[in-house]
Specification:
The protein has 102 residues and is an alpha+beta fold. Helices cover 45% and strands 22% of the residues. It has a 3-stranded antiparallel β-sheet, covered by helices on one side. Strand 1 and strand 2 form a beta hairpin. Helix 2 packs antiparallel against helix 4. The chain starts with 8 loop residues before the first strand and ends with a strand.
Length: 102
């Protein structure tokens, strides 16, 4: 499932004039309840992801493991938000469908 609903997430890079634009896809092996919860709380989840993205610095972007670490942080934040709102997370993987830094 795509989190962005045709609207990528755009965030400033911390301490920089540069920006990041990402589109995220989510994966679960649980039932449709997880994706229904994602759909129901899409705005809150997008906001939570933007909170994570706005903490990224240019130094972070140069680390070889940056993308995998960022995806793990996004997954944790999405699941945390779903647990807060619905009592269950269920997102097993987060993928970049698009990643632009300029």
């Amino acid at each position: 499932m795509d989190l962005d609903d045709k609207k990528p997430l755009i965030s400033n890079v911390a301490g920089s004039r540069k920006v990041m634009q990402v589109s995220l896809s989510l994966m679960t092996q649980y039932d449709d309840r997880v994706f229904k919860n994602v759909e129901k709380h899409r705005t809150a989840l997008r906001s939570a992801c933007l909170d994570v993205l706005r903490q990224v610095t240019e130094a972070d972007l140069s680390k070889p493991e940056f993308r995998s670490e960022l995806l793990a942080r996004l997954r944790e934040r999405i699941n945390s938000e779903l647990e807060r709102l619905e009592g269950f997370g269920g997102i097993e993987e987060v993928f970049f469908a698009e990643f632009v830094f300029q």
